[in-house]
Amino acid sequence: MKRSNKRRSRRIRRLVLLSLSVVLIGFGLWFGSSNAYTFLKGYLLFKTGEVAAEDYKIQDFEEIHTGDQTIEQEPATLYPERPNQGENIGDLIIPKLEAKLPIYHGTAEEELEKGVGHFAGSVLPGENDNSVLSGHRDTVFRKLGEVGIGDLLVVQTSAGEFTYKVKNVRIVDKDDRTVIVPKPKAVLTVTTCYPFDFIGASPERYVLVADLISSKQ
Fold it and tell me: Which keywords describe this protein according to UniProt (predicted)?
């Protein structure tokens, strides 16, 4: 009887271990494929060499931008029609990274999966006030941490080409609403989750704040 009970206990332990192994293997495959899918999306969206950094030099704008002076646009003249949710409104060029990224109107997951999202509650690029762009840190903005004060951000839309110079880099709490507050001049605010190598839901945001220094319409 005791020997039978021991055999039964061993079979139960083996069954439990086998079940646990299957669960762990299944989880590993799911986790790995999810990360691979995210990486693949990021690779397809973010490619270096899309633009030439030497085509966008800060020296080219020294006559336009001196000290704290910035370009101001007349309100409600750049875009006769406002874009619809999910519509492609242009491209964000990051010369330092030699990257060119599509911008979509809206910041829902549907837009962020395709590229950079434009916060619909903010003005459009080039207009006076605060234009806010967001993107995932593991896809379009996985190298955004290399961009800092003095670097250029260029937005191309149907209204023209707008060049901004980064004047401030901030790291804020994920619930910090100062990122989207109105500004008295044309500003571009670019945000992504932070830290860049954090696993899971990030507690903070990496924020670039840039002034408009050139407008070509």
Answer: Hydrolase
d(CA 12, CA 206): 51
The total of structural domains in the chain comes to 2
Residue 26: domain span = 1-45
Q: Distance of CA 166 to CAs 25, 118, 177, 195, Å? A: 46, 18, 20, 20
79 and 151 in a single domain? The answer is yes
Q: Is 136 part of the annotated catalytic residue set?
A: yes
H helical segments located in 46-136: 109-112
Identify the burial level of 173 via C-beta atoms within 10 angstroms of its C-beta, where 0-12 means exposed, 13-18 middle and 19 or more buried: exposed
Catalytic residue chosen out of the listed positions 65, 105, 118, 193: 193
Is 105 annotated in the active site?
A: no
Dihedrals phi, psi of 28, to nearest 5 degrees = -60, -40
Clarify whether residues 90 and 195 are in a common domain: yes
pLDDT by residue, tens only, the chain of 217 residues: 555 666 666 677 777 666 666 666 655 554 444 555 555 555 556 565 667 677 777 666 654 554 445 555 555 578 989 999 999 999 999 999 999 999 999 999 999 999 999 999 999 999 999 999 999 998 899 899 999 999 999 999 999 999 999 999 999 998 999 999 999 999 999 999 999 888 878 899 999 999 999 999 8
pTM as predicted: 0.75
Cα–Cα distances (Å) from 191 to 37, 42, 118, 163, 203, in that order, read: 22, 16, 10, 17, 13
**Residues 142, 85 share a domain:** yes
Residue 23 and residue 94 in one domain: no
